[in-house]
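$ run holo --ligand "nicotinamide-adenine-dinucleotide" --emit tokens
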Amino acid sequence: MFDSEIERPALNSAPSRRVCVIGLGFAGLPTATAVASAGHQTTGLDIDPAKVASINSGRATSGIPAEAIAPLIEQGSLIATTDASAIARADVVLITVPTPIDTEGRPYEVPVERACETVLRHVSDGALIVMQCTVVPGTTRRLLVDPLNAAGRKVGEDIFVAFSPERINPGDPVFNVSNTTKLVAGATEACLERGLEFVASFVSTARPVPSLEAAELAKLVENTFRFINISFVNELAVLCDRFGVNAWDVVEAAASKPFAFMAHFPGPGIGGDCIPVSPRYLMAAAERNGLISEVIPASIRATARMPGHVADRVATLIAERGRLLTGARVMVVGLAYKPDIADTRHSPAVAVIRELESRGAEVLVHDPLATGIIVDGVLRPSVPLDRVWPAGAVGADAAVVLTPHSSIDYAALAGQVGVVLDTRNALGKYGSGRIVSL
Ligand SMILES: NC(=O)c1ccc[n+]([C@@H]2O[C@H](COP(=O)([O-])OP(=O)(O)OC[C@H]3O[C@@H](n4cnc5c(N)ncnc54)[C@H](O)[C@@H]3O)[C@@H](O)[C@H]2O)c1
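-- output --
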């Protein structure tokens, strides 16, 4: 069974289910819309009444445009609620609540624990529960399988439990929930069978994994692989600066090898709620099993150095133009953690702003999509690129592009600031001596 992927059956051939999706955020809402679009009667359950109201009135929510939500609400195939009793009417319950880290960088598991307690209180016999959150391996068994068995509801006979991690990549114009292969693991053979059948009803391909823990680990490995590789090239970028070569030239040259190399590129840090968080969950999994990770902490240190490196580069570029960073006007451009989305969670912009200001720079921020960013509890609102600075001057001494949104007018930007540090090497096409990469 484990080497056979399951393709999505023709539309209408899969039976329609009553599905409850718990948590309607950046991962849960795209899943709920994909499930509803596949013909299942879908209820989204969230503890945030404002989000529920926004979805029910067909407005853009959690990065999903109104055009994708409104028709489903109008047809009645998707409805949002704060009422947990909706779980009792569901044939399938999907859990997509947050699994963040606390201020110490350790897994903060209270939301997923609360959501599982709610599910266990309401779920009906015969239902399939699918954990979709990114979790410490062992969590699906600890929070769902063991308590159900202990309560006398035999998993695999009375009720069914699967783990199927969410792989959504917000803002990706090619890959979405429906056309991305989805892993599925079951607590028992019967759970796996039901999990595969349901998941294959709304994604192109469902791929079985032999155990809950293997699938939970696979999700952490996908994200941690990316974190470690980006951290490696971040370290390379600092080294390349010392050699006076461009890190992108080095990676692109290495990537001409047709096997055993995958290109990753540097930047000012690693943001978002997934890539910087999963390595912490993997480290916690290792610690809970008596192992100390060597590679992950080194990667975290390498990437934590980048905001300081960005500030060093700005200071050098400004010095080359006869000024000091102290008292210089610096525009930080691109606050979201990646291009063409508005999400600023764990954005490296925060550390870059702190670093520049700690060296005496006057910083304003701009993002065409995010309304601003919170730094040490204070909202920094996004200002127009041609903003007149408090000192009365027009234009900054330097701009630092952290996230190259496609809607930014880079030509105008380069025209009105002394120098642009492009930390993503994305602006080559606007080329002028005043655009410099990291
Ligand atoms: N955001 C992504 O790109 C992404 C990608 C892959 C996987 N994931 C994973 O998906 C999970 C959800 O992440 P997210 O980014 O959607 O989070 P999010 O913060 O965007 O949304 C979570 C939603 O869950 C709701 N919620 C919290 N506790 C609840 C409860 N007990 N009952 C009902 N609703 C509750 C919140 O109000 C919020 O609307 C996490 O495990 C995350 O790691 C996220």
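-- notes --
The chain has three domains: 6-212, 220-303, 305-437.
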